[in-house]
Amino acid sequence: MSSLVELAQTLVEHDNFLIVSHEHPDADSIGSMLGLFHTLSFLGKKCQLICDDPVPDYGWPGMECFRTMEEIQPFETAIVLDCEPSRTGKFVSILADASFLINIDHHQGNNAECSYQFVDPKQAATAMIVYKLVKLLGVPFSPEIAKSLYGGILGDTGGFRYSNTTYDVFLAAAELVTHGALPADTARELFECKSFEFLKILGFALSKIQLSTNKKIAWMALTCQDFHDFSVDPSDCDQLIQYARMVAGTEIAILFREVAPQEIRIGFRSHRVSIHTLASHFGGGGHLLAAGAKVEGMALPAVIEAVLAQAHQVLE
Question: Which domains, from first to last, does the chain contain?
Fold first, then answer.
């Protein structure tokens, strides 16, 4: 892992940035992108924010700056945040045009080949890395930067409830609040503002929750038809896994989402069991207690059977 000081110097030395993150962006990816965008703009750098998936409707400053793939202007330096470049979806081929590729992430197992990479799995969120970068660069925390980074940190710590919520996280959050972050508004945007359709499919998903015979694994499975019936985008339902995680006594919670025929997205959560290797077994990755994977070319029932069998092995 390269040093944060070297990363800051690398950003100073380059310009004309294209900032991108993973498919189906979450609070950390959006907050990190916006925070870095505002920081580099303050330094007089030219920046583009790129996201081809629907951007969450957060009220954070700069949301209107996101462009689609068709709107990309010529660039020199690409920055991939919160994932390895191979997980940026349709932007993978575009990143090959970058004269310099920077990767900033906090996910374990990211060993991507880049011009410059900084990965720190000890950080609760990629937004925490950007927070530290802002301080190193001597950029003042504007309300625009503070609101974005606070949102990213709040999202990846589950509202300061997950085990990655550390002393440093609370210090960073407190500093960001003094510079304009709005805790109540941000919490509502992330956790308490859902569509009527989402709440309907939540009730349906809860009615389908299943528990292994040893009561150590809880899982939910939703099909393409389910999402169609409730008029809900599968990408908006990743948070359903938290309800499986609530089942008392469970060690592993799993959410299966059939986003297209023979394309299954899997979410894994645990309170104490390392599930990174479980996700890696199916070509995914993430953190020790929160990870995900995507399986293609298999029907949903077969994927469920294979994943549950592997999950039981992890618990042995």
Answer: 4-191 (3.90.1640.10), 196-315 (3.10.310.30)
Q: What is the pLDDT of residue 110?
A: 85
Structure confidence by residue, pLDDT tens digits, 214-250: 999 999 999 999 999 999 999 889 999 999 999 999 9
Convert the chain into a string of H (helix), E (strand) and C (coil).
CCCHHHHHHHHHHCCCEEEECCCCCCHHHHHHHHHHHHHHHHCCCCEEEECCCCCCCCCCCCHHHEECHHHCCCCCEEEEECCCHHHCHHHHHHHCCCCEEEEEECCECCCCCCCEEEECCCCCCHHHHHHHHHHHHCCCCCHHHHHHHHHHHHHHCCCCCCCCCCHHHHHHHHHHHHCCCCHHHHHHHHHCCCCHHHHHHHHHHHHCCEECCCCCEEEEEECHHHHHHCCCCHHHCHHHHHHHHCCCCCCEEEEEEEEECCEEEEEEECCCCCCHHHHHHCCCEECCCEEEEEEECCCHHHHHHHHHHHHHHHHC
Rounded (5°) CA angle 266-311-253: 55
Report phi then psi at 268, rounded to 5: -125, 135
- Interval 63-88: pLDDT, tens: 999 999 999 999 999 999 999 998 89
Question: What is the pTM assigned to this prediction?
Answer: 0.91
Residues of the chain with pLDDT under 70: 1-2
Q: Which residue has the tokens 């293609």?
A: 296
